[in-house]
Amino acid sequence: MATIRAVTRKKKNKAGQLPIAIRITKDRKSTFLNTGQYIDEKFWDERNRNVRKSHPNSKVLNNFITGKLAEANDKVLKSEMKSEYETVSEIRNKIIKKKGLDFFTVADMHLQNLKNRNKHHQYDTEFGRLKKFKEFLGKDSLPFNKLDVTILKKFETHLLHRKNLSPRTVVNYLILIRTIYNLAISESIVDRGLYPFGKGKMTIRIPESQKIGFTADEIQKLENAQGITEAQQKAIHIWLISFYFAGIRVGDVLQLKWSDFNDGRLLYRMNKNSKLVSLKVPEKAIEIIENYKDESESNGLVFPQLNHIDLNNTEEVSKRTQSITRNLNRRLKIAAKQLGITKNISMHIARHSFGNISGDKIPIQMLQKLYRHSSVTTTIRYQANFINKDTDDALDSVINF
């Protein structure tokens, strides 16, 4: 009799998280079904083989795992009821229905995984990209053996020259296709030998992007803003709070609660990767948030934009946050123009501005903590946009004679 259990695999992803899998064991031989979900080791309950309640999305993830277990158990029971003997590999192939799954079927699996992880903004973005890929192909299905370098090259050219998308945006489309292909390989739906990416095939090179942040003088213009509307002032307040806390994302700023502030520190869990963050509350930040105490409602939010929204409905919060961010960015642009700031401004520029001013003043390991990056390599790449002292000194040493 085969046994089925939810387990975590040992090989971590780039974010240091363990993959959650369904293990099928028969005759002391095991095979694994990848669920596409990853989790920090501390959130996995090995004894009960589920996600701990301390994880912010534990209920959703556990329901998802239960569904995968039920699906696998149903197929195993049907296999056991047959008279002929089946190995674990044969059982696994029947569960994943190895034959006949095309690229867009696996793409739907990928999108569903995003929904299960409450990645609603990413879901919307990638759903739109897949729709454009279908429009380019002129059909709703694509066998993996037809997804080759030629199609990928033509699609890249189409996006660059027909749709006039930026090279960085085009790379995002190709990364999505590669991600779905890798999911198909992990599920044994397609042979790795058909893989169209890599050296000598379709190579994905992320173009260098220029990240421009504000200077201290420009930020002081925002801090001392006069002659702007109340709505514009509130947009600047949210931007400054993001900047004061090392560029925390707008979605996290909008969900800050009064209960997150204790003993002069901000303690909150990031929505993007569920990391717990503890930061000192600067005096400048205190001066801003004190203005909003009278607007506080029963949900305890500091800023009022998400009042009257069910914060447990992650999809509704995501869509509302996107709408609010668009409005904030529009008001920021108007205010910046009135204040004589010529650089482009958006909520995300607050993060770039922190990087620009910190430059090479702060050790990279400390910046990694402030940015909440999982890898110091990510911090080094990010901060490279803003560290110019060495190159400036080198240039001066040559031309100043």
What is the overall pLDDT average?
85
Give the overall silhouette.
globular
Tally of contiguous helical segments: 15
CATH topology label of the largest domain? hpI Integrase, Chain A
* Cα Rg: 25 Å
N-C termini distance = 83 Å
> What is the ordering of alpha helices and beta strands?
EEEEEHHHHHHHHHEEEHHHHHH
Strand portion: 5-15%
User: According to CATH, what is the class of the largest domain?
Assistant: Mainly Alpha
Total number of beta strands? 8
How would you characterize the largest beta sheet? Answer: 3 strands, antiparallel
Helix-strand makeup class: mainly alpha
If classified by CATH, what would the architecture of the largest domain be?
Orthogonal Bundle
Q: Point out poorly predicted stretches.
A: none
Q: What is the helical fraction, as a range of percent?
A: 40-55%
Number of domains: 3
Strand order of the largest sheet: 1-2-3
CATH superfamily of the largest domain: Intergrase catalytic core
